[in-house]
Specification:
This protein has a domain of 72 residues. It is 67% helix and 3% strand. The chain is built from 22 helices and two strands.
Length: 406
């Protein structure tokens, strides 16, 4: 089709989007070549369909998507949505919210899809003020969207994740229609706050109030709430009765959640016994919960078993597993074993994505990465941390257990 000798007509603005979609499913390389060809043929950045397809192509690389976005002479709601979503999926919610704010400066009104994406980004970044502003915008400019399942659910989730459970309940109660997705979101909101009784009650209310039958996700949310609240007996009862009461067979995720619940309260042997009764092979999440419980309750022998089981799965344990085992050895004063595990990490070239946290202050979201040596204010940050540690009567150990192993 691209060859000058081809009998087929040359590609145009209708055929290129399909080619870009196919390229996105394969690898970035052919998509980059098509991008160059689009510019050469004058189809980018002027054509709407081509621009949309290019943004979808670069969805996994938000900076590339932003460059495409910045070149567009005319931007529509879908273009903003794609870039905001690309940033949010990459863990760069603050940048995505910047694009959302620019949308208003450009005079483009957000639709339900964009609002849902933006609210989700607010939840991910913990940007409560921004989320509240979006909520007020919807109430003022598009009140009908408050009844939209996705917009309403996004607001419920955002408020719950930002610590405002009562506001999440108010949004939920104010929705004129609530389907299984909306109910599942409310169950998840209660789960985040460990409100086990309300969660289990939701499972029964769904059918009674709205004729909605709980699905596996909703039951998982209730189990998670039991785990966070320490309601172990209630959680075990729910696992046993979920098939009969709700017609939902326990899946791997339900067993994994219950194992985690048992491990949180030092019922490690019960957790292993439950694993042995699972009708499917346990995945890494199950044995990972056991390993975490072993760290909390200083069970070295079972930690070694859990690590060995994790080693049988797929590519084997990642750095986090070995660090856990190393710390368990340190807690048990087995420093030689801890050093051996740390050397194993280095010899295998195992890498772990650094942990990070985000905080919103005056509508600005700041990110903090573990062991960040590049932050421009790292000196001031450590001074504040030392001050806080002194006030709490503790001691700040910058190297944590790594210093003990050097």
């Amino acid at each position: 089709m691209l060859s000058p000798a081809s009998p087929l007509p040359p590609p145009d603005h209708l055929s290129f989007p399909f080619a870009l979609s196919a390229a996105a499913a394969v690898s970035p390389s052919p998509g980059t070549q098509l991008h160059a060809l689009l510019v050469k043929n004058g189809l980018f950045p002027s054509d709407h369909y081509v621009a949309t397809a290019l943004l979808q192509l670069h969805a996994a690389r938000p900076d590339d998507a932003r460059r495409v976005f910045d070149e567009l002479p005319r931007r529509e709601a879908i273009h903003y949505d794609l870039v905001i979503g690309a940033y949010a999926r990459a863990g760069m919610a603050a940048e995505g919210l910047g694009v959302f704010r620019a949308m208003f400066m450009d005079g483009v009104a957000p639709d339900a899809v964009v609002l849902t994406t933006a609210i989700t980004a607010c939840a991910q970044a913990g940007a409560l003020e921004c989320g509240e502003w979006v909520h007020r915008y919807v109430e003022r400019s598009a009140p009908g969207l408050l009844g939209d399942a996705f917009v309403g659910s996004a607001l419920v989730s955002m408020y719950a994740k930002c610590g405002c459970l009562e506001q999440a309940v108010r949004v939920f109660d104010g929705m004129p229609e609530r389907n299984d997705y909306v109910w599942g979101t409310m169950v998840g909101a209660f789960a985040v706050h460990g409100r086990a009784e309300e969660d289990v009650s939701c499972l029964d209310r769904m059918a009674r109030e709205d004729g909605v039958r709980p699905d596996g996700v909703a039951v998982l949310g209730a189990l998670s709430a039991c785990a966070h609240a320490g309601k172990v007996d209630d959680g075990l009862r729910l696992l046993r009765e979920m098939s009969r009461r709700y017609g939902v067979a326990p899946g791997h995720e339900h067993y994994a959640c219950t194992v985690d619940m048992l491990c949180r309260v030092d019922r490690l042997e019960d957790a292993v016994a439950l694993i042995e009764t699972m009708p499917m092979a346990p995945l890494a999440s199950v044995w990972g919960s056991v390993l975490t419980g072993c760290r909390t309750y200083a069970n070295v022998e079972l930690a070694e078993v859990a690590t060995a089981e994790l080693g049988k799965l797929g590519a084997g344990p990642d750095e986090g597993v070995y660090v856990q085992l190393s710390n368990i050895y340190l807690d048990a004063n087995r420093k030689d074993d801890a050093r051996r595990v740390r050397k194993l990490i280095g010899s295998r070239g195992i890498r772990k994505v650094p942990a990070y946290s985000e905080v919103e202050v005056d509508s600005v979201v700041s990110s903090f990465v573990a062991d960040d040596q590049a932050h421009p204010q790292r000196v001031e940050i450590w001074e504040v941390l030392r001050l806080l540690a002194d006030q709490m009567g503790g001691e700040l150990d910058e190297g944590e257990t790594m210093a003990e192993l050097s």
